[in-house]
Amino acid sequence: MESKAYYLKYRPQKISELDSLEIRQGLEKVLKSGRPPHAFLFAGPKGIGKTSAARIIAKAVNCLSKKRSYEPCNRCEICQAITDGSALDLIEIDAASNRGIDDIRNLRDKIKLTPVKCKYKVYIIDEVHMLTTEAFNALLKTLEEPPEHAIFILCTTQPEKLPKTIISRCLRFNFHKANPEEVIRAVERAVKGEKLKIEKGVLETIGKSVDGSFRDGHKILEQLSFAGRKITLKETKKLLGQIEELAPDKLLLLLASKDVKAALTEIDRIVQIGGDLSVYIQEILERLRLGMLAKIGLEDIEPPEETKDFSVNQIKSLIQLFSRAALEIKTSPIPQLPLELVVVEWGEESTEVAKQTNALRSSGGSASLQTQASLRDTSHTSIAHQHRCGTSEDIASRQLSPRIRTKHF
Question: Taking the complete model, does pTM exceed 0.70, yes or no?
């Protein structure tokens, strides 16, 4: 028996099985009308169900069952042929490798022929934005005067690259990244189908870790299932780089106590145990986010313990520093370097605050607590400002040299 990947084996086969509520409701309305448009445009990130939805449409408009409303029966000859990929009237084209004008001209010649068995010939053109300008012009002529028996479904991850003339002739559906609940709904089909035993929290962890991709959720579950035993939360987190020993709260507590040396040692420990630094930063940012929202008075949010010693401005500054590190870590020749810079820069600012506070005390007696807090907040907020605008020396240099000032558009 042929073995299929989970994301293919358990892909939705009916409108009601589509995991995105917005897409599900939109396609229901179109198919219930009984007048399908001659061209659809499915736009959105990879792995969120564009091709699956396109195949369902192909079945729905060609299903032979007389009892159906808008859903394909998945039992008739046509539905089964489309499901197993043997339907002659469903043509799937990868525009990344068939992007020239000759490929589209060949399509135009064949589309004139009547369907072999189906009511409609359905053309699914994946990554349609990869077509050449000449190919788009040829496709436009077909979309302007399509045969009655043809339906086009254009799929793209970059709709901004499509000519407006193409977009205007299609019924557009925007596929957004799935939320964790939608990913869980999709992955649960594979869990039930494969009779997998999983610990509590596994699906929730997968749902939050795949950046809204149904396909990636299925891939992770399949990888976890290879062991052939109960899938544990610990194994799941380890696969995703969320090692329990990461303890992101520990670094925040060290930053709050201004212990730079211990904070750098903690980062080295994370590297030594093989922790995923991107995941580590993401978990730190999530804690800082909750701490910020709680401190500004958002209801029903309890600030994480490790953020309670920070002010709102300090948290904002740390969020900006860690967000920058999250981007730089992807291209840094030394993976932990952007994270170490966060600690060093934070420590330098904290030292400067301490010096200024001591100066105030020695020159003017005891400064008020409110003044000290204001000084501390202003100093930490300046960290991100310096990264955006440069140091005071940089700004002065630009002001003294107007002739070499660069314009940004």
Answer: no
